[in-house]
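ok, trying the design again with the full structure, not the truncated one.
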């Protein structure tokens, strides 16, 4: 259900879709002498787009070949080629930004947008909003200017009645007083929300508000500022919907960008109820790239370690660590190497993250460079900037003006370069390869349709092709291929469920046995904890086996589909099978199982945990209670891994197979078409197109 906002929102004018950019000072200074300098955000952002040029060149080559197929093919072929071209041009890789509160993550996102102040940096502690910013080169295709989606009734009930994850854990452990504190805090939030929204409160749950444009004031209604909405003098609309807003999407026009990009700004994960942890996990699952924002003052705090655990299941090549706020370091030339070494040492403990790239920077420097307001630096800040410039200049490979130099030292260009490198070699490469393979198949099919035209068949004294019979044969091949894939996927899914269940039972038995041994050795008064890392490792291993099996099944059925359709073309036209070499659809990449990084009860420590022990009498009562508690805590993880990761994993490949056959079916409809006979492509040009597409798809 979608609303255009309530009546108040509809009556108020909203600015057109545009980013908020700083004003350009009217006069320029030849060099930085403490005065304002002319700011050109687009020129500064241009320094961030250099590494994407190789992808753009190859994308444009594929696009031009698809244009040729649109021009030379029959209407069905042209529609299929146009669809693939649109999909190529709509490519929008996503990057999830994560970090704890006060690490400067939102300020960094604003700087990356070239729009300081667009998103409120000091959000209300209750707010758990994921803000997706779609930087689009084609704003005319954006579905909205802004969309704000509210929690549904299930999300809200889980938070307000059970106290979120902390409430569940406290209740499960029998810590009634902690659970009651959580409930009191939740009640306070719920009552504030009801007073603010009145009778509309229930009606808003599960809906969304769409706008054709946005401004800062509108954003602050949903992603709020401050801690108390009832402070004297606070705008009445500020934060009005913030408590129940689950996600926000903003479409930011970037006509000068060659490629779209989605930045997902997640809430800081160190919140009271762990709602943000769950929301961040969902955002990470939807992105292949992740930026972890740390503060230079407390890099790798306890909360940051929890962040690393969250991304431990993401490949290190897809993780970039941005150490922010280096502008506050008194001796950057000394401290930055120390921080880098400390981070590297810590990452060694997290398998797969050792090679994550580390970028140092300052969102504040980036903001001042975008606004051309270096005069806002006080003496100490200016000294730090100059000291860092001396440290960084030996690595500079170009001459830059004052604003460009500060922008470069802010780390934003380096962060973008790291991201574009990963996009070009990762999701960008995958997108190009899939589209090139689809285009090549269209070209091969078009060549088959050209050879099947009536005039050619008559010249060869061959019978006109029965396209109905060919279509029926294609239907048979498709049904057979899909059945093979479905059987292979179901086998892999069932096997994964069994492996994950065995891993879960094994973990429960080991944990319970370790507890009993501890009690027999030290007694119940000695502190005891159990690391769930073993469970995470077993579940991750089981999922990886499943992922390999699904990809193998997809590859095998894709190759079968291509071979059988190519053989069909050759048989119908009386040619050698090698004349029609098709490429099967590529098995999509399965998302990383990021939910394995979520907090498990045994990770928590505190007085409530110790009191849990004190309420049991006799060793015999410890083991069963503990077994039941840890099973209740870990069972949802196993079920979620099966239901949200394994079960849907077969759909993308199946859809790719269906699309492959749909393209071929459209081409076969053109066999014997007089339109192709009259306007068909030049055989030599078509052969060249096939050759170029084969090279691109290889």
């Amino acid at each position: 259900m979608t609303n255009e906002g309530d009546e108040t929102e509809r009556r108020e004018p909203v600015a057109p879709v545009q980013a908020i950019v700083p004003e350009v000072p009217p006069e320029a200074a030849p060099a930085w002498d403490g005065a304002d300098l002319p700011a050109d955000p687009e020129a500064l952002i241009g320094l961030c787009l250099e590494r994407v040029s190789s992808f753009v060149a190859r994308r444009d080559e594929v696009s031009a070949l698809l244009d040729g197929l649109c021009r030379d093919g029959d209407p069905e072929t042209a529609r299929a080629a146009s669809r693939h071209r649109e999909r190529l041009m709509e490519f929008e890789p996503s990057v999830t930004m994560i970090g704890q509160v006060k690490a400067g993550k939102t300020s960094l996102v604003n700087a990356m947008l070239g729009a300081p102040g667009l998103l409120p940096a000091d959000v209300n502690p209750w707010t758990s909003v994921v803000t997706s910013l779609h930087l689009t080169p084609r704003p005319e295709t954006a579905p909205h200017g802004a969309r704000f989606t509210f929690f549904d009734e299930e999300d809200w009930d889980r938070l307000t009645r059970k106290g979120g994850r902390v409430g569940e854990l406290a209740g499960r452990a029998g810590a009634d007083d902690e659970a009651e504190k959580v409930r009191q805090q939740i009640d306070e939030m719920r009552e504030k929300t009801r007073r603010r929204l009145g009778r509309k409160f229930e009606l808003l749950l599960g809906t969304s508000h769409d706008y054709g444009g946005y401004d800062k004031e509108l954003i602050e209604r949903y992603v709020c500022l401050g801690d108390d909405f009832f402070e004297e003098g606070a705008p009445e609309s500020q934060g009005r919907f913030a408590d129940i807003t689950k996600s926000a999407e903003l479409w930011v026009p970037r006509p000068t960008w060659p490629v779209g990009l989605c930045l997902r700004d997640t809430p800081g994960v160190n919140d009271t109820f762990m709602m943000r942890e769950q929301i961040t996990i969902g955002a990470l699952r939807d992105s292949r790239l992740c930026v972890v924002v740390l503060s230079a003052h407390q890099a790798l705090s306890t909360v940051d370690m929890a962040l690393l655990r969250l991304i431990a299941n993401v490949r290190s090549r897809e993780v970039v660590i941005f150490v922010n706020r280096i502008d506050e370091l008194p001796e950057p030339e000394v401290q930055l190497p120390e921080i880098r070494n400390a981070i590297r040492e810590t990452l060694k403990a997290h398998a797969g993250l050792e090679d994550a790239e580390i970028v140092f920077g300052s969102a504040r420097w980036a903001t001042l460079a975008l606004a051309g307001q270096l005069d806002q630096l006080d003496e100490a800040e200016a000294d730090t900037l100059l000291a860092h410039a001396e440290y960084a200049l030996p690595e500079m490979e170009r001459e830059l003006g004052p604003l460009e130099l500060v922008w470069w030292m802010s780390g934003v260009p380096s962060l973008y370069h790291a991201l574009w490198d990963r996009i070009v070699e990762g999701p960008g490469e995958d997108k190009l390869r899939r589209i090139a393979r689809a285009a090549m198949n269209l070209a091969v099919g078009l060549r088959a349709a050209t050879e099947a035209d009536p005039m050619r068949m008559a010249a060869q004294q061959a019978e006109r092709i029965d396209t109905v019979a060919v279509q029926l044969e294609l239907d048979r091949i498709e049904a057979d291929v899909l059945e093979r894939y479905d059987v292979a996927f179901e086998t892999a899914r069932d096997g994964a469920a069994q492996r994950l269940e065995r891993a879960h039972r094994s973990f429960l038995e080991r944990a319970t046995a370790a507890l009993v041994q501890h009690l027999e050795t030290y007694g119940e008064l000695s502190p005891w904890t159990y690391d769930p890392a073993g469970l995470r490792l077993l579940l991750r291993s089981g999922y990886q086996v499943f992922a390999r099996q699904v990809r193998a099944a997809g590859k095998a059925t894709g190759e079968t589909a291509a071979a059988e359709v190519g053989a069909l073309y050759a048989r119908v036209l009386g040619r050698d099978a090698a004349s029609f070499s098709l490429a099967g659809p590529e098995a999509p990449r399965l998302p990383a199982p990021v939910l394995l990084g979520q907090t498990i009860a045994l990770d928590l420590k505190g007085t409530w945990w110790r009191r849990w022990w004190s309420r049991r009498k006799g060793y015999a009562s410890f083991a069963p209670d503990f077994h039941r508690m840890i099973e209740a805590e870990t069972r949802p993880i196993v079920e979620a891994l099966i239901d949200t990761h394994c079960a849907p994993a077969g759909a993308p490949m199946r859809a790719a197979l269906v699309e492959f056959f749909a393209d071929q079916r459209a081409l076969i409809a053109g066999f014997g078409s007089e339109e192709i006979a009259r306007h068909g492509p030049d055989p030599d040009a078509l052969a060249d197109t096939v050759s170029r597409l084969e090279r691109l798809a290889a």
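Keeping the full-length input from now on. The longest helix spans residues 467-522.
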